[in-house]
Design brief:
- By secondary structure, the chain is of the alpha/beta class.
- It is about 45% helix and about 15% strand.
- It contains 18 helices and 16 strands.
- The strands form four sheets. Strands 1, 2, 3, 4, 8, 13 and 14 form a seven-stranded parallel sheet that branches.
- A hairpin with a 4-residue loop joins strand 5 and strand 6.
- It binds one RNA strand through helix 6, helix 13, helix 15 and helix 16.
Length: about 525
Amino acid sequence: MKPYYITTAIDYTNAAPHIGHAYEKVLADVMARFQRKNGREVYFLTGVDQHGQKVQKSAEKAGLSPQEFVDGITEHFTALWEKLNVRYDGWAATTDDRHKRVVQAILQRLHDAGQLYKKSHKGFYSVRQEQFLTDKERGPDGTFAEEWGEVVELEEENWYFRLSDHVDWLKAFIQSHPSFIFPANRAKDVLNALEGSGQDLCISRPIERLSWGIPLPFDPRFVNYVWFDALTNYISFAGYLAEDCGNDLMPEFSRIWPADAHVIGKDILVPPHAVYWPIMLHALGFTDAQIPQLVVHGWWNVKGAKMSKSLGNVINPDALADTFTPDGLRYYLMRDIATGQDSDFSDERLIMSYNKELAGGLGNLLNRSLNMAHKYRGGTLAATGYDDAENAALRQTVAEALPAYISAMNGWAIHDGIAAAWKIVTHANAFVDSTKPFSLAKDPAQSARLDSVLYHLAEALTHVAVLLSPIMPEAMAKARDQLGWEMPAGFHFSDLSWGLLADGHQLGSPQPLFPRLEIETPMA
RNA sequence: GGCAGAGUAGCUCAGGGGUAGAGCAGAGGACUCAUAAGCCUUUGGUCGGGAGUUCAAAUCUCCCCUCUGCCA
């Protein structure tokens, strides 16, 4: 089977990462880990978009070279992914020479195929913002606002990509491929945008205006501008043209393409990912079957408002991971949003999800189960042949959780996947109260039953510690450690069946998995 | 103005033709293995409004209202 190839958007290295960056990478990481446990070979690519005007300006302001500036910001991202246990297989940095070679090769091919042309554009240009202005930027009185500074009329030559040649193909493709965009209803936005847009795409900037970019191989007075640099990371780091470009350490492109999921935010669906990208691939000769799939996630708002620097409500994932542990944050980010929808970020709910669910629900269940097993049996499990309806009911809950979990996760409904696994936690907590192992321990006649209860708890918890491992890799590894069960190499969800723990299994010592946090005041 | 999403319990949200669901918050209770955790019971909603289709509508259709986003 083809490896599961998943990517995220590459982040622009102009400022430090916020919670939205973290959400997207964790989402992709969870899916990558899920697919691995589900038996697929996985290639997970993420990275940073490092070229462009803003970086060039910010670097100048900071008195650094663009590369130095970009390297500094990039470290913020890689350090955060390290901290949040985002484990990628490929790192797409657009200043990587291997990437630059592929971009140039692509541009040369399109140039040779007549897909690029040079054209002169005359218009109003903002010196301060270094960009051409359109009528959109005009105020109601027809003048340009103060923020644009000095506006001059300017004529400039640039290279264009014949986007309009492929619009009809794209419309037909979208209509005949409903799985191209998840969630499917977003396809209407794209078709909407395609109506009446016969514009070609400007892909260059004169080198005097922008030097921090990839030079056009056929016209070195220009540097590539944005999309042929940024979007192409999905193929350049997947091994596209690797041989022609002399790129080593790349995946075998024909094996892993097309991508099973380009995980992106809804802000960059139209036009870049749903219009430019498929058309770029189509122009390069990719067939319909080689067009990747897009997974569009929503945004975390803060108290109903968009997160923005000017509102001062930017959430810092690094600090949250310190307070709630990386897995506590990952859990919240996955359980409190439906993939594709927006959600409201809330301190109260983050604290609740950690203290009530992770600490009080799952963590306490592990702790009380192990504690009793140690207190009554020295931590050794025994198979006794005792069984009853209560035991059978718990086994059934465990058995039913797996298919529900897998189906939810495959459909990107991570919150439903968590809920499916959580049914085991809820049932097991109730199971303790109904079977009362602490009472059974006082009655020697109930010895066999006590053993069966302790076994059922430990076994059920082992299943939970596998199912939730894509969401909380570190904490679930600790849980398995406490359970004394090491997941065999190459263990897959399909290997989950009752009886992972053997007769005579020795449990580890209990230690609070998610220590309860005393937080009174919600943090800002 | 067009398109999309949302409008369901005090709060956050799930569900999506067949007696209204979860978590949190509130109330009461029993228990004690445990991270002052967990368990049981319970209060609480004419599912934005109106009309229609149907034996049956929160769910489908149409109209309208409010919020959000994108586009013009």
